[in-house]
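[Discussion] Sanity-checking designs against the backbone

I'm trying to build intuition for which residues belong where. Below is a structure token string of 230 positions. I'd appreciate it if someone posts a full sequence so I can compare it with mine line by line.
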């Protein structure tokens, strides 16, 4: 895709975040949106080769809308200044609603590429299931934390600013992974400059990064809420 055009558009949008500007520049947006759709389509196909559960995800449903939900926000800017997508089984564009790991990518107007995988603020039943799984399968989770490819690509699980100060109710303070049990999000994540002069390298870069995150995704799927076991 035309990465320079995309980042330039997003930069201008961040500086002119209003409806009149967007309407005037919508032809540019439509072209870039279509190119991003092609990227997400190709990415789903490639991820599906090592993670078959997402092989048939709908790329259009994986992409987030550029319109912001401003109903409860102090910032009333109508548009997001980035393109993003979340890839998960069953076309869950917002996996955090139902729970379950997702692959995520975002490109902003500063020329930054962000990508990773995991679960961000899963709902309460899902969060408890993950915490309980850390206790039940402490050895398996340790293997994820020590996975060489995951560590090399991401440096480990992202720090969680919402992490509890004390262990959640019902969990032993001396549990092996208590510091992770206190967390509310479980995500591996990296941010790197876009290779604007090498757009053909973007897809391979994303595919490699998502594959490096596969141990995290696979382990998270072993955590089952009660309704999934019945």
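Best answer:
Here's mine. Compare freely.
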């Amino acid at each position: 895709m035309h990465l320079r055009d995309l980042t330039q558009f997003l930069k201008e949008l961040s500086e002119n975040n209003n409806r009149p500007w967007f309407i005037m520049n919508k032809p540019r947006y439509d072209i870039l949106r279509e190119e991003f759709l092609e990227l997400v389509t190709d990415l789903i196909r490639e991820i599906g080769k090592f993670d078959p559960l997402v092989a048939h995800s709908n790329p259009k449903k994986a992409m987030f809308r550029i319109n912001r939900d401003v109903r409860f926000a102090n910032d009333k800017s109508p548009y997001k200044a980035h393109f993003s997508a979340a890839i998960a089984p069953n076309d869950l564009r917002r996996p955090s609603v139902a729970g379950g790991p997702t692959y995520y990518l975002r490109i902003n107007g500063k020329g930054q590429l962000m990508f990773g995988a995991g679960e961000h603020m899963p709902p309460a039943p899902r969060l408890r299931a993950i915490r309980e799984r850390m206790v039940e399968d402490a050895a398996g989770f340790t293997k994820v934390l020590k996975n060489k490819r995951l560590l090399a690509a991401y440096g480990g699980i992202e720090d969680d600013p919402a992490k509890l100060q004390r262990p959640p109710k019902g969990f032993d303070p001396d549990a092996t992974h208590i510091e992770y049990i206190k967390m509310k999000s479980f995500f591996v994540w990296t941010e790197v400059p876009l290779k604007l002069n090498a757009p053909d390298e973007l897809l391979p870069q994303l595919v490699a990064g998502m594959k490096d995150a596969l141990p995290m995704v696979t382990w998270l799927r072993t955590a089952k809420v009660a309704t999934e076991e019945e």
